[in-house]
Amino acid sequence: MNEMKKETVNYPPIHKLVPHQDPMVLLDSVVMADEENLCAEVTIRAASLFYDGQGVGAWVGIEYMAQAIAAHAGYLAHTRGEAVKVGFLLGTRRFESRAAQFTLGAILHVRIHRALQGDNGLGAFECTIHDKKHPETPLATATITVFQPNNVADFLQGKPI
Q1: How far apart are the first and last CA of the chain?
Q2: DSSP summary character for residue 58
Q3: Over the stretch 131-148, which tens digit does the pLDDT of each residue have?
Q4: Quick one: which of 18, 41, 56, 108 is 20 to 30 A from 33 by CA?
């Protein structure tokens, strides 16, 4: 009998993909990534940043989505042997959430899909957050617009990009 084995991919730790330092790295790990998509996982714990005694406000989902986009850029840089670069969240469109908060113990899958990427560093991503136990119905959705300049120092000093 010929059995198919499911390929296991070991992605770099999230801290190597997202250019943040603790306690602002909010995601736990990458569970899937390719050229256009990424799925990150985060478990809501009592020690989670922004936990208020009952859960984490759904508005934090925008940051989960932004960090998943950053992890995607970091993953792509890693696959090319390049350094991870800083990017900027420019805006959020059509953010919708089915709940006011993500509850204690929930394991969330934050999924992003690159819908648009310009040569100038501008990008747009379709994002969803799902409870791992109920993957068929998104808890939150949004379109996130980001910017990743080639040279962050020049950009921050107001030099032409």
Answers
A1: 58
A2: G
A3: 999 989 999 999 999 998
A4: 56
Helices (H), 28-158: 61-79, 152-156
The tens digit of pLDDT for each residue in 90-135 reads 999 999 999 999 999 999 999 999 999 998 889 999 999 999 999 8
What Cα–Cα distance (Å) separates residue 74 from each residue in 27, 46, 98, 122, 148? 13, 28, 29, 16, 11
Q: Where are the beta strands (DSSP E) in the chain?
A: 29-33, 37-43, 55-57, 88-97, 101-103, 107-117, 122-131, 134-147
Alpha helices (H) in the chain, listed in sequence order: 14-17, 61-79, 152-156
Question: 10 Å Cβ neighbour count for 59?
Answer: 13
Residue with tokens 């394991």: 107
